Request: fold
Amino acid sequence: MIENTQEANPVTSLEIHAGERKSAHARLARELFVKCKQCRTLLYIRELEKNLKVCAACGYHFRLSARERVATLLDPASFHEADTEMKSCDPLSFIGLDRPYREKLQEEQKRTGLHEAVIIGTGSIGGHALALAVMDFHFIGGSMGSVVGEKITRAVELACRKRLPLLIISASGGARMQEGIFSLLQRKIWPKWWQQAWPKKSLRRKG
Reply:
């Protein structure tokens, strides 16, 4: 007796092509539309971006990346980024539940296109020059590691050196646990901010 090894309901080429078309349509829909997390309205992405990522139906504010905030706030082509090559390292050789911290950094850099959770530089708003530091929650929750603290400090120094107002947009989840004490030490930047921005002489009473 010869057994029939052929499946009872073999998948035809037409069914395969139909599945591929359905997958392509779903992928195209994800690229063109997004669903509002609050009212569940389907929104055209280009229209959402024109509305500064605010849902036209209910007013829900979508999360902005650091570069989107810069583009929204500053005059066109006025932003000049500083310290672009600064990257975090792995001083503790930290290994998380799923992968080493060094690998996580590389994945986040590739996914977000950022080197770290903050970008700094100078620009202008309505023709008025300023220095700014903009944090990005998409990069490990905007957590503050050693490089984040250093870049914000440099933004303060840049503003003081060029005598510019400083704008800091915070979107931080707190200290970055993967860097341990190196992350907690970033609290030490606060005294430097005050010393740079408000020297003792300027705080003395006249007369």
The chain is about 40% helix and 15% strand. The helical segments are 13-32, 45-50, 66-73, 101-112, 146-162, 181-184, 189-197, 200-203.
